[in-house]
Amino acid sequence: MKSEISTRHFSQLLSATPRGARLARLLAVQQLTEWDWPPSCEVSESAALVVAELAANAVAHGRVKGRGFRLTLTVGASDTLRIEVADPRGDRRPLALRTASPTDETGRGLLLVDALTARWGTEPWPPSGKVVWAEIGLPHPVLAASASGAQPSRGHVHGTPGDSQAEAATAHVREKAPSRP
Length: 181
Description:
Elements lengths: L7 E7 L3 H17 L7 H20 L7 E7 L4 E8 L21 H8 L2 E7 L3 E9 L4 H7 L15 H13 L5
Antiparallel strand pairs: 1-2, 2-3, 3-5, 4-5
Helix pairs in contact: 1-2, 2-3, 3-5
């Protein structure tokens, strides 16, 4: 008997504008809903924040006139959701994580990404761009849940243990997030 391994994949080219960044977040939540993670679960909420940060960075720091950015979501047999945001500015890689002062209005985005994901990084996107990727560990095998008809677990996705700055940044963003009806 042959085992069936499947990969879920979504990719969309978007305009490098604030509207495109917002659409990236909305499309990610919609796609995850189609893959059986409702908008209110930990996986979807974490992914929405990560996509929002990476897409906003692509618009703010990776923009080239007349070129967009690409959002890609992939779930494979590895129990990991991989989020990729590719932009045309390979010369502008994300800076190392830094400590933002309490009065800074920016500079916490990558702390959020770090807190909400198992790992993240960058790689070249030929011919001259870059991909910023992040991986969120899934609570259990997605493909087995889909095949059996079971509902996905709504387990917590852990960031870096003991990273109080990242935890504070995550709490700060969730406090500021508008409440859902």
